[in-house]
Design goal:
Layout: H1 2-8, H2 10-22, E1 41-45, E2 48-51, E3 56-59, H3 62-65, H4 74-86, H5 95-107, E4 113-117, H6 120-135, E5 139-143, H7 172-175, E6 178-181, H8 186-193, E7 198-203, E8 206-207, E9 213-214, H9 217-229, E10 233-237, H10 249-254, E11 260-264, E12 274-278, H11 280-283, H12 307-320, H13 324-346, E13 352-356, E14 359-363, H14 372-377, H15 380-392, E15 395-396, E16 403-404, H16 411-427
Parallel strand pairs: 3-15, 5-6, 5-7, 7-10, 10-11
Antiparallel strand pairs: 1-2, 2-3, 4-12, 8-9, 11-12, 13-14, 14-16
Helix pairs in contact: 4-12, 5-12, 13-16
The structure holds pyridoxal-5'-phosphate (PLP).
Pyridoxal-5'-phosphate (PLP) is lined by residues 64, 119-121, 124, 147-149, 204, 208-209, 237, 239-240, 264, 274.
Length: 430
């Protein structure tokens, strides 16, 4: 497979050689690296991306699950072009920030006020600070396998072994106030918290990076009650699930309403964004006119609410608001789920398909994958081979990462994925 890849990607190989001189590991984000070297893209539209050697792939990575309407949707591109003729970044107030905040409030059940940032990581950082400021407490509970970006206090226990630091350079001080608890296990979560005073619990309604693992409804409901009991803030990280599982995100899908929600990805319509939203009395802590230092909780940044991103985001949310696109995507998700399950069953392959709405992941294992430990017990080598075989046949998953379906994926795209899966299973002699 590797020889085939190398023979098709000579220009990418050259670019990667060049990249390694100036970018650590030759990439801007290590999850984008794969062996022997990643291909370099020069065009993306709809469900397709094309590399510099002219190979076209059906993309299931979709810009880190951002492009729910496919790559470069014409309406968004047109709107952004018009906007940047008026100004790329004003750096002062403008109507679009009100309009997008109003749109978020309209769609997301927990949203009463909004602040925009430039990335999900920033949103997680500001939400943590806000929860601490609101409750006057420090400790944050996060879950094993949960990924909330690179902010120090939350950047731990992302993948097993959980005791190992995820990155060098994070101080003990930064981690001292973070309690790690097992996902989908309320009893053990309560035990780990014990009698400690907690400011917040942060949870992804569906663990993304850890393997597309849905929270069980009772678990989320239990966390909701626990936060009430402990006078703590429940934070949903909806950076992946927001505007994807339902127009109102995972909270609408599960019917469990958090106090604070962090958003990103789809919210920016294909441009960089993050967002913190939630209850008015909590969000108002970010208002220094109401809460003077030291009670005020800071949030801000040079490129916050830049008009290009906000134009794209507004166009995006307006497309998703009535739920038709999302219902259709969820239908496609079920089609892929059933198709893949049928292949594995027919061919007697030990594999489970985790699928929630339009997000899915194959795990080569027999056991149900309801936490990240089970995901890591699955055969990762087989998963890498599977994704590499798909890539060889023009279907792109970032190796070992979930797939995301967009409204630009056609029935034929989905059929091809199922067909190529069947071929892989057949050829690898399972
Ligand atoms: C659930 C979740 N939270 C937070 C983040 C961090 O967002 P960003 O990469 O925009 O900083 C991500 C990114 O993948 C994510 O998936």
């Amino acid at each position: 497979m590797e020889a085939n890849y190398v023979s098709k990607t000579a220009k990418s190989m050259q670019l990667h050689r060049r990249a390694k001189q100036v970018l650590p590991a030759g990439v801007s984000y290590f999850i984008r690296y794969f062996k022997p070297y990643p291909f370099y893209v020069d065009w993306a539209k709809g469900s397709k991306i094309r590399d510099v050697d002219g190979n076209v792939y059906t993309d299931y990575w979709m810009g880190h699950y951002t492009h729910i309407l496919g790559h470069s949707p014409s309406r968004i591109v047109k709107a952004v072009k018009e906007q940047i003729e008026h100004g790329t970044h004003y750096g002062v107030c403008h109507e679009l920030e009100i309009a997008l905040a109003e749109q978020v409030v309209k769609m997301v059940p927990s949203a009463e006020m909004v602040r925009f940032s430039n990335s999900g990581t920033e949103a997680a950082m500001y939400a943590t600070r806000l929860a601490r400021s609101y409750t006057g407490k420090n400790k944050i509970v996060k879950f094993e396998g949960g990924w909330h970006g690179g902010y120090d206090a939350l950047h731990l226990a992302v993948k097993p072994p959980f005791e190992l630091l995820e990155s060098n350079g994070i101080t003990d001080g930064a981690l001292r106030d973070t309690i790690v608890a097992p996902f989908n296990n309320l009893q053990e979560t309560k035990k780990r918290i014990n009698d400690k005073e907690i400011a917040a619990v942060i949870v992804e309604p569906v663990i993304g990076a850890g393997g597309c693992i849905p929270a069980e409804k009772e678990f989320l409901k239990g966390l909701r009650e626990l936060c009430h009991e402990k006078d703590a803030v429940l934070i949903f990280d909806e950076i992946i699930t927001g505007f994807r599982l339902a127009p109102g995100g995972g909270q609408q899908y599960y019917g469990v309403i958090p106090d604070i929600t962090i958003l990103g990805k789809i919210l920016g319509g294909g441009f960089p964004i993050g967002g913190v939203t939630g209850r008015r009395d909590i969000m108002e802590r970010m208002d220094p006119l109401l809460y003077e230092r030291p009670k005020f909780s800071f949030q801000g940044g040079t490129f916050t609410a830049n008009p290009a991103t906000l134009t794209a985001g507004l166009e995006m949310l307006r497309n998703l608001e009535d739920g038709r696109v999302i219902n259709n995507l969820n239908r496609h998700g079920r089609r892929v789920y059933r198709g893949l399950e049928a292949v594995f069953e027919r061919k007697k392959v030990d594999a489970v398909v985790n699928c929630v709405g339009s997000l899915f992941q194959v795990h080569f294992t027999r056991e149900k994958v309801r936490d990240v430990n089970a995901a890591y017990r699955a055969d990762k080598e087989k998963l890498a081979k599977y994704h590499s075989a798909l890539m060889d046949n023009s279907v792109f998953f970032l190796p070992a990462k979930n797939g995301a379906i967009s409204s630009a994926h056609s029935e034929e795209d989905l059929e091809k994925l199922i067909l190529e899966t069947e071929r892989f299973v057949g050829e690898s002699g399972y």
